[in-house]
Write a structure and sequence with these properties.
Helices cover 38% and strands 21% of the residues. By secondary structure, the chain is α/β, with parallel strands linked by helices.
């Protein structure tokens, strides 16, 4: 044996990487210890066996192809990445180099020299990086990066086909409530289960991705019609809406879904954006719905974006103004309070009503600075008219309460204006009050401790039990306009109005019936026992400078056509006219069985002082004792017991114990 052969033999045996010599048939003639160790076998267990015995089935084809090229002389060597199966069944990733070893004169057979470098750990690290780069860590679904890659390929592959690609954008309804109430761990469990249900509902080849939070996207391949996509959507919604048990709570999740179908001009980003836009439309329609994308949705979204940008400027440049709509004492029609309502003096579109921008303010969280502006303006209005001793009520959003620290805003406005806290009231919707977080409830309690009255706005339009509302520090209720429109129907409208009017009196709250526009509605409201009312019959929302205050504390607002013109933002054409005298008594007699109207204090909302012990001593005073602290009062907080005592059948009302 020559010196060269000895050196090769020594290097072969002692090499730290695996080495092997294959005969022309692909059997191992020689292997070193490193190669045998890589496979988890001894030398004798490898010698004489074919390389195919240890090669991963998925890599056999490329291995045969490489060996064939070398045998044919097409290439002297080959490099490839392949997988071996170890004795324990594990997959071993290896980077191998195969070289031709021509035979000698004495032994003309060709052999193959193989060098095997174990790169399993390197491959695992790469796979982990790929997993983190392309897959969601919580659910294991594709993430946004992988989704867009796959969606782009799908769109390209369908451009010249009859079928197309559909994109679904799913958002879990009210998911924040789960996180806030049960914690993020419970929320994660819910998301994992919903992800599994969606994955099990789609067809093989479809892609399910999670974009983050509670948002999922599904890419449907080979869709021939919208009906096919809707069939998959039905399967998804049915699966998702099965109950989930979280801790001791059984929840039934729902999703809002947007559907967008690809066309010849679609891009991956554009299709996802279109589905997202449609999903937002489904949310606005009431959640747990499906909406298909239409180009007008995009235009509407761009319009909202424009309004949001302009609204930021409006808040900064003081383009917002506050109008005041009167609340009257129904027996006398005397103005005893105002509701502050924001208006936007747009530089090009004129006076904008709240429904044209409040929704955008809520979605963009601009409602917080906008709401603070209204509170400061309302307090300044009160301070400018000390002769008027009524209240001003201001609408607040649930987004202003809790994290936004509404108490701090109110304290600041009170300090700047120097007014008494009892002159300010805050209106919160029924649903908003009941869905308030712990922090929000603490904020509400702090406000009542200041002496601020809380009023439930649009009462009756929510979906909660009446008893739940009464557990909150509420001083008054405003019956929604929807019920006022039904006054005089001698059916549900009248029954609800009568019950709510009497209930507020029983609970020592003040009640305001909204939306009174006709004398007929006014008459019925009085018969039902309402003492306060609001509506166009008594005045439209009016600019502060158009309200006339008398030294005796009375207030007058424009009426008739002038009132409507001012509310709409039209320039005034005349001075405020003298209000038409109104009858101070209702010509319709009160039925004997109905509660008589209790006298009211002209100073504002609330019953007049009494001399009997334990009775109210001023506007909301039963709820605000020394220092404005919340106090219990002697009245029946069970509406069922009260209604039975007063001869009212509770079965006609949506009340729950």
């Amino acid at each position: 044996m020559s010196r060269t052969e000895n050196l090769f033999r020594q290097a072969f045996q002692e090499s730290p990487i695996g080495m092997a010599i294959l005969d022309d048939a692909g059997r191992y003639e020689e292997v070193n210890a490193a190669f045998a160790s890589t496979l988890g076998l001894s030398l004798k267990d490898v010698l004489g066996r074919s390389f195919t015995d240890f090669t991963h089935p998925d890599d056999l084809a490329q291995s045969h192809e490489a060996l064939a090229r070398i045998r044919s002389g097409a290439a002297p060597s080959a490099k490839l990445l392949k997988r071996y199966r170890s004795a324990s069944g594990d997959t071993i990733w290896a980077r191998i180099t195969v070289s031709d070893a021509p035979g000698s004169h004495a032994d003309p057979r060709h052999r193959l020299v193989v060098q095997v470098e174990d790169v399993t750990e390197e491959r695992r690290a790469k796979d982990l990086l790929t997993q983190r780069t392309h897959y969601d860590h919580l659910t294991g679904l594709a993430n946004r990066t992988l989704l867009l890659d796959r969606l782009a390929l799908s769109i390209d592959s369908h451009r010249d086909r009859i079928s197309t690609v559909a994109c679904l954008f799913l958002d879990v309804d009210h998911f924040k409530v789960v996180n806030d109430s049960l914690g993020h761990e419970a929320g994660d469990i819910m998301l994992v289960e919903i992800a599994r249900r969606i994955q099990d509902s789609v067809r093989p080849g479809d892609t399910v991705a999670r974009l983050g939070g509670d948002e999922f996207v599904v890419v449907l391949e080979n869709i021939r019609s919208r009906a096919v996509a809707e069939g998959v959507i039905t399967a998804i919604t049915e699966a998702v809406q099965s109950p989930i048990l979280l801790e001791t709570h059984e929840l039934v999740p729902t999703v809002s879904i947007g559907l967008a179908m690809a066309d010849e001009d679609s891009s991956a980003e554009g299709l996802v954006r279109a589905a997202d836009t449609a999903m937002s439309a489904a949310k606005e329609e009431g959640r747990a719905r499906v909406a298909a994308y239409h180009p007008r949705m995009r235009r509407d979204a761009m319009s909202k974006l424009s309004v949001e940008a302009e609204l930021r400027t409006a808040i900064r440049d003081d383009q917002l103004d506050v109008y005041y709509q009167p609340i009257v004492d129904l027996p006398t029609r005397r103005i005893i309070a105002f509701e502050a309502l924001v208006r936007w003096h747009h530089p090009s579109r004129g006076l904008l009503q709240p429904d044209e921008f409040i929704g955008v303010a809520e979605d963009s969280n601009l409602i917080v600075p906008l709401g603070a502006h209204v509170i400061h303006q309302a307090c300044a209005f009160i301070a400018e008219h000390p002769e008027f001793n009524g209240r001003v009520l201001v609408n607040v959003s649930t987004k202003q309460i809790g994290a936004a620290d509404l108490t701090r805003v109110v304290r600041s406005a009170l300090s700047e204006s120097g007014i008494d806290p009892s002159r300010l009231g805050l209106e919160i919707t029924e649903t908003g009050m009941l869905m308030a977080s712990h922090a929000a409830k603490s904020d509400l309690e702090a406000l009542t401790a200041l002496g601020i009255d809380l009023v439930v706005d649009d009462f009756g339009t929510g979906y909660s039990a009446l008893s739940s509302i009464l557990l909150n520090p509420v001083s008054g209720l405003k019956l929604a306009r929807e019920f006022t429109l039904r006054l005089g129907d001698r059916s549900t409208g009248d029954r609800i109005s009568l019950a709510m009017a009497t209930l507020t009196l029983s609970l020592d709250m003040y009640g305001v019936i909204e939306g009174i526009e006709t004398e007929a509605q006014y008459s019925v409201a009085r018969r039902h026992g309402w003492t306060y009312g609001q509506g166009y019959l008594f005045g439209h929302p009016t600019p502060a400078h158009e309200i006339i205050f008398s030294p005796d504390g009375s207030a007058q607002v424009p009426s008739g056509e002038r009132s409507a013109a001012l509310a709409a933002g039209h320039p005034p054409t005349m001075r405020p006219e003298t209000p038409t005298p109104r009858p101070l008594t209702d010509p319709t007699p009160t039925p004997p069985r109905e509660r008589a109207v209790e006298p009211r204090n002209d100073a504002g909302l609330g019953p007049v002082p009494r001399t009997d012990a334990g009775a109210a001593s001023g506007p909301g005073s039963a709820r605000h004792g020394a220092g404005g602290a919340f106090m219990s009062i002697e009245h029946d907080r069970d509406p069922f017991a009260w209604m039975h005592r007063n001869g009212i059948d509770p079965s006609g009302f949506d009340l729950h114990r």
